[in-house]
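Feature request, filed as a ticket because there's no other form

It would be nice if the structure record came with a short human-readable summary line next to the tokens. Right now we just get the raw output. Example of a typical job, pasted below so the devs can see what we mean:
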Amino acid sequence: MSACLLSFATTDRPVAAHPDSPQATDGRFRNATPRPAEGMAKTARILWNFLFNKPADSVPRAPLPVLALTRAQLEAAPDRSLFRLGHSTLLLKLRGGFWITDPVFAERASPVQWMGPRRFHAPPIALDELPPLRGVLLSHDHYDHLDRDTVVQLAKTAEVFLTPLGVGDRLIAWGVPADKVRQLDWWQGASFDGVRFTATPAQHFSGRGLFDGDRTLWASWVIDDAADGDGDDGLRLFFSGDTGYFDGFKEIGRRFGPFDVTMIETGAYDPQWAYVHMLPEQTVQAHQDLRGRWLLPVHNGTFDLAMHGWRDPFERVSALSAERDIALATPMMGEHFDLAAPQPTNAWWRAVE
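Raw output as currently delivered:
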């Protein structure tokens, strides 16, 4: 949440309006269920607590374990591989091509690199060591999900950027070639090499400055690596981006489920803003609404963005998943995860001071 509060006037150009979208009203996008008004007093109180009343364990005392990756390792990995690079940045290998979600390689999730939430760990692979990408998948424009320098670097080799409405306008303003950008509204999709990507609803908000709130859309994503008729049963994934809990999960599950793996945010939560970031109990419920088989929690383990301990997201979602008999995967940063044949992972965070 702090990355959302760290919004200053920036050099970003105004984004284009998308008045034909059912989600747009008077030049701004809306949630299906309106979020409550914050008010200056509540915002100031949240910021004060974040700056001066943080729990002692909100940041790890020792470096987090990271499995370093090389380009050769990635290129040799089988199809339907996943590598967690940090926060909500996931590298997926599908149909021989690499796709990355919400790529952030910056040291800080902030409009400036001299202040703001700092990474707990370096990325498992340097940005310039990544193999050429088939595509980049973006959920919204907050700083912990959309890093301008990373995007500009990736634009040199990535073939396509899939974004919610308005986010693509930002990329084009930053110099990403317009013919590489595909902007989608909720329930719209695009296919590449036999993989279908559909933008689906989320309960969140957007903005990178003082005056651009909700000028761009936010979305979750359904990724459908369909069966090919040669004994391939297909693979269906869900990536939440940032979202509060809402009825939309049941509708997504009805239209597209069941999902083999759901990659859902579990981190940066607080009861004060549960309408835009789910509590762990809501994460698990969303997974069940989606009719998911394996749950892989994201949006944790990289930045200090809330008032909880850094281990709390892992511990709480682990306990809840065990209670509800949900298959859970919590791969270490850089660890290979087989989407085609998921296996339980270790509770690596318990070995960190």
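Something like this underneath would help us a lot:
DSSP finds eight helices and 16 strands in the chain.
The mean pLDDT is 93.
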